[in-house]
Amino acid sequence: MSAQPELFTWEFATDPYSAYAWLRENSPVHRTTLPSGVEAWLVTRYADAKQALADQRLSKNPAHHDEPAHARGKTGIPGERKAELMTHLLNIDPPDHTRLRRLVSKAFTPRRVAEFAPRVQELTDRLIDGFEAKGEADLIHEFAFPLPIYAICDMLGVPRQDQDDFRDWAGMMIRHGGGPRGGVARSVKKMRGYLAELIHRKREEPGDDLISELIRTSDHGEHLTENEAAAMAFILLFAGFETTVNLIGNGVYALLRNPEQRERLQVSLAAGETELLATGVEELLRYDGPVELATWRYATESLVISGQRIAAGDPVLVVLAAADRDPERFAAPDTLDLSRRDNQHLGYGHGIHYCLGAPLARLEGQTALATLLRRMPDLRLAGDPADLRWRGGLIMRGLRTLPVEFTA
Ligand code: HEM
């Protein structure tokens, strides 16, 4: 048995997959101390991960965590300690989760997402127009970062003239999520204040947008409280933002590093086919997905996973990135195969917290990749891949920058 790899170092952030292979093999349910000082269990095998994601004994409610005082609130989502935004889907269990999820599912329908396709295409083209003539770009800042924030703002009904404020607040939250709290706290506060006001305005003057729909939607006569509506808008923004940035960033990077696969996709797109694009985006999610670890879970009672006893109150982190490379589940798991068929990856989670925004994420991912490859057929990395830096966050995996070149 080779030596146990060090976790959460700079090398690990660059390539966590060899460390995860070691854990799957040698310590599949692994106790570790996180950079924040919190002790948690990492679940790395696919079968265990899938089961844990659906296990109702693992609660999403942070109140179940008897953590030391110094670590409180470090659950990975900026501003989570603010009670008003705490009641969102990723922090609650049934029956509250069931009620709120049903309400939002009614408003966030596949039809609404499908209707949104032309707008996503238009946004994508507009962003590319902004840098096409330069022959170079940082695809994270100029493309992957603004696309989802404008898309979600549009969907929620944030007026266009206010969307740049949102982009700035969200940028602050991404950049400093695990760092200096002052700027993040200010951004969360501004966003919270803005959302409260927006919800108030939409109650008075509803429109054809998700917030108005959320307010209108009732469930057995029960409406969302103002607080629940704000928490819902916040989680839609938060859950749908950095994830999609990284789907595009990690996805483009993986394609540029696998030229035969990229070539196949370009040929298929040029022939007007969409099948390889659809299976390809799923494969990119499996191969190097945006959510490295699922959001936090806490054992409500003592339980056993793969022979390992976990005590009540212990945090459990399901490592989606490790599960999705498990050779017990996927043939040649370290190979990118855009046409992979048997691909039930856990990139969107599993069970009752399965990603609500998966149809929107697919739409954005497919539109972004197809349009980039069509408009910049000779897109290539600028500079040495060894110089690229990955963000060191716990939950998400994504590049800080992605410099590219192409024929203008
Ligand atoms: C939940 C991944 C985009 C909204 C989740 C979960 C994962 C995930 C893994 C489950 C977390 C857990 O169980 O701990 C992704 C990925 C995305 C993406 C990889 C992009 C590629 C989006 C978008 C939206 C969204 C665009 C909405 C606009 C949500 C919400 C939840 C969620 C609301 C919580 C659902 C619940 O608790 O019932 N997502 N997501 N996501 N996602 Fe996404």
UniProtKB/TrEMBL annotation:
SUPFAM superfamilies referenced in this protein's UniProt entry, alphabetically: Cytochrome P450 (SSF48264)
Q: Where is this region: Disordered?
A: 59-78
Q: Name one Pfam family in it.
A: p450
Superkingdom as given in the UniProt entry: Bacteria
Q: Which family does it belong to?
A: Belongs to the cytochrome P450 family.
Name of the molecule in the record:
Cytochrome P450
Species assigned in the record = Streptomyces maoxianensis
